[in-house]
Amino acid sequence: LSGGQQQRVALARALMTRPSALLLDEPLSALDPFLRLRVRAELKRLQGELGITFVHVTHSQDEALALADLVIVMNRGQIEQAGPARAVFDAPRTEFVARFIGGHNVLQDGAGRFAIRSDRLTLGSADEGLAATVTAVEYLGAQVSVTLRTDTDEPLTVMLGDRVFFDAPINPGDAVRVGWQPEDAHRLAA
To answer: What secondary structure letter does DSSP report for 96?
Structure first.
């Protein structure tokens, strides 16, 4: 049997006992990306149809966000943050959660550390914004990941839609200005 078939057989075997809860420990980790998406959708459908609790342990942030009603981020055996997937992703409470859940940049200003989603940053060449230098550009299909280093040597990642990027492409070594809306930045607990 293929990896996907083995996963489905194991799931069917577990569901035959009609459990009130199901523990899934990294159930998608051995699957190729295409099959992982299909099995993930199947798990979501099964959970909804059966109405039972799935405790899904994963190190994949995408998997957790796609499947979870409640996300719990643990750090050294302690709960760092728990809440609905969107709330945890949009407003991580700590630097650990912001970095672990992914998609965020952590910056420092006079009032302390704050996080801002990489898809909420904008790039420009005007005098406004944080000065940075492009260190890498990675085309990801619908998005382009632009890695930067600020003048204060902080790393940043900006996720741009492919059309936005290709309307004004930039290259490693280019000087840019990074901006954001104040409401998109949120303070992190110490």
So the answer is: H
